[in-house]
Amino acid sequence: MEYYYRLTLLSFWVFIILCNHNKCFGCLEKERIALLELKNSREWDPISSYDPLSTWDDKKEFDCCVWERVGCNNTTRQVIQLTLYRAFRSDIGYLNASLFLPFEELQYLDLSDNRLTDLEGLDRLSKLKKLHFLDLEGNHFNNSILPSLGTLTSLKTLNLSGTDICKGSLTQGNISLLAKLVIVDWKSSSKLKVLYLGYNNFSRGIPPSIFTLNSLQALSLVGSYLNGPISYGLCELKNLRDLDLSKNEFEGILPPCFNNLTSLKAVDLRGNQVYIPSSLISNLKSLEFIALSGNQFDGGLPFTSPLKSLSSQLKFLDMSNCNLNMSTTDLLKFLHNQYDLRYLDISHNNLHGSFPNWLVENNTRLETLVLRNNSLSGNIQLGLVVTLLNYFDISNNHIQGNLQTDIGVVLPQLLYLNLSKNSIEGTLPTSLANMKYLNYLDLSKNSIEGTLPTSLSNLKELDTLDFSNNRFFGGIPESWFLNLKFLISLKLSYNSLSGRIFPGLFNLTSLRVLRLSNNQFIGNLGRIPSNIWIFDISQNQMTDRIPSIDIGKLDYLRTLILRNNSFHGPIPLELCNKSSLEFLDLSNNHLSGIIPSCLNLTSLKYLHLQENKFSGSIPKAILQSSNLITLDLKHNNLSGNISKWFGFLRNLRVLLLKGNRLSGSIPLQLCQLKNISLLDLSHNNLSGSIPPCFGNINFGKIVPGEDVFEKNADVGTGYNHFEYTDLLQMTGMEYMYVDWIYSEEEEVEFMTKSMSGAYKGDILNFLSGIDLSCNQFTGQIPNDIGALTMIMALNLSNNQLTGPIPRTFSKLKHLESMDLSRNKLTGEIPSELTDINTLSVFNVSYNNLSGEVPYMKAQFSTFDENSYKGNPFLCGPPLQKPCKTITESTTVTLARWSASYGMDLISLFASFAASYIMTLAGFVLVLYINPYWRHIWFNFIDTCLSFMFPFWSEAIYKVDNP
Ligand SMILES: *[C@@H]1O[C@H](CO)[C@@H](O)[C@H](O)[C@H]1NC(C)=O
Ligand SMILES: *[C@@H]1O[C@H](CO)[C@@H](O)[C@H](O)[C@H]1NC(C)=O
Ligand SMILES: *[C@@H]1O[C@H](CO)[C@@H](O)[C@H](O)[C@H]1NC(C)=O
Ligand SMILES: *[C@@H]1O[C@H](CO)[C@@H](O)[C@H](O)[C@H]1NC(C)=O
Questions:
Q1: How does it sit in the bilayer (predicted)?
Q2: 14 CA to middle of ligand 2, Å?
Q3: Among 85, 295, 633, 729, which is disulfide-ready with 112 (CB 3.0 to 4.6 Å)?
């Protein structure tokens, strides 16, 4: 028994000794203690977010090598890697570097994205002889750490991106400090091979000391406010393999000496304004990675010389938006003999010719192909090669024909497929269902027809599906709703889809965006997915009430558009507290009842309730929506006054109350709506006078940058395709992101010119007008209206307005339409109005105007009788009625001439005529009274004529026969 006991004890000790040698128990004890000390050295607020180091002192895990973010050598079990990004979110902001000293074998230290301002005793890390990787990106060090960094001679990779080392005061001193660091401490013996300095501020230029780091193989200065020409100094870095200068403001021509950087494998100049000589590509034979998007080429470009001069195969080519303007035949010449492309982006270059099918066929490892925004035509017709393509964007071209039937067999790896804005026809091939990894499918704006294929429910990974603006008909397959569990965005607008909206829709719990507008769906709304943000079913044939309970459950609802259907009943009270709602459009339905007084829509910006049967007064509750930009209540049965609290809606741009039964006068407080650009109060029973303070309102005088109407931008998904994580080691990294940009396209109907038009999106930023027509307004038109110089439409017709047309109206230099008809205006039409040369509609008919119609200037000569009729005392063309007497008319005309010639022609003509008549009358009188003088006079005339005749005939002969 004792023997066994001793044997066990002995083997235990042997085990301990052996294990201690081979580190069976894991990391060194001192390393374990140091890690715990590191953990305790920082402050962490565990409530606010996830603490990445929280499990470090978990007693069960004695071996710290298995701890998160710790990496050990598999044989020695000593810590060699510490990945401590976002681990020290303390406000103290400094860390004692000597905490890392126990890790004698440490090779890799990542301290990125902590909010450190100082690393105390950083120079002591020079004792860690194996430390070759140090990542300090995204901290806020001041430049006091620079000297100590210089002592870390074992470093091969240093990431100082976004560390603000030169933030703000980029003084010469700071630069020289970096220079000193580089020259004195790293010198030529420096082993530094990779230097990341991106996202710092180098607006004063690249620190020259960097050019002395001649062992440097990779340098990143991405996003560092560099400007002007690219420095020749970079050519000193003869060993450079990877150079990233993207996202700067470089200009000018790329230095020719770049042709000497023959080791360059990867060059990234995206997002600069540099002219790139084509010789760059023909000389640098090692290039594999070329990213030049956004820059310009010098015309002829490398496409004349095929890329076969390269010693290796090109892997990455990004030349989007380089103004290449070339054909696919040129592209063929250039990329002939390239078989190993992984990434190709030539979007936005006016690339023409037929779609380069050969590109996909010969580069079987191609993963990303982006050719959007070009003029490619022809079919996509890929031969039977199964490709690795996962990102395929040919949107906005002129691709024609049917999709090839086996497209899903040829492109089975696709994650992203965008063929929108082309001319693709025919039905969808069933093989689409083979693309089982597909996340993103956009075929919108084509002419694809047929029913929606049930088989698409196999695309279980789909998060975005856009088939809008095609010719699909039939219902939405039930199976989609059972299987497409990850769908975030579903857009089927502008098709001919029909049938009911399926209860199954409710199963799509991920769905954020659902757009089904402009189809023929019938029935009631059913249950809406509870996480929805954007729900648009406008322009269908939906009936029944708006389901109150379901609406109440939509906690994230931002856009609800039920426009142009046949919904009836009241607005459900459950809408009252939707604090997330920004866009609500229930217009053109048969909704009735009052507008609920419980409305408390604090985020609401656009409210459309027009063309319904709402009654009662406009509730004060609308005031809660202080961000309101559009309020459209046109064509309802609303009554009561326009309340003075409207003045509180300071952001209001569009107020449309046309066609109700509103009465009372316009409250002066309306003039506080300084941002109003469209105001329509027409067709009501409003009375009183037009407030002169209207002249204080902006009406279109919008400050630039204040555009509140935007084009549609949906919450969607996208890809940040191809990033490289290590400059020396390019790695494809596809990841999907959800795009949170959101803006709903606003549409407003307003009468400008003589037509009522619907204005959409950003155009609304430029539209302005007032319509007060068809009310009972009395009094004079205030002169102050003339201060609304940006206004485009003014309609005051069909009121009881009196007095003259203000001369100040001549200042309305953007006015396109002026309607003052059917009032009781008097006086003349001010001739100054002819200064407005934008007018295309002018109507002053049926008033009591008098005097002559102004017709002298171009715009006014286009208005016909209808503009003026019904004014008994108005005369002159285009009216039939001439102005009273000729003299009067002549006088008027002369008055105009004299005004335009700047002299008193009337008195000139008058005195001339008077003396002429007097002389002639006296002469005739003498001849009549005295027969002798009469005889002499006629003899004299005869003699004169016979004397003159020979001269006359000769002169006339000469003229005829020169
Ligand atoms: C692990 O340690 C052994 C022995 O010291 C060494 O030979 C080996 O290169 C180390 N491995 C790594 C990945 O550092
Ligand atoms: C240690 O071994 C594991 C498992 O074999 C491996 O995943 C890890 O990369 C190795 N670590 C190092 C530093 O070599
Ligand atoms: C390229 O290098 C050669 C030889 O080293 C040199 O003569 C030439 O001037 C360099 N070219 C440029 C543009 O710097
Ligand atoms: C595609 O590859 C084939 C065979 O490898 C070759 O004959 C053809 O010229 C290549 N086409 C292009 C455009 O490179």
A1: Single-pass type I membrane protein
A2: 27
A3: 85
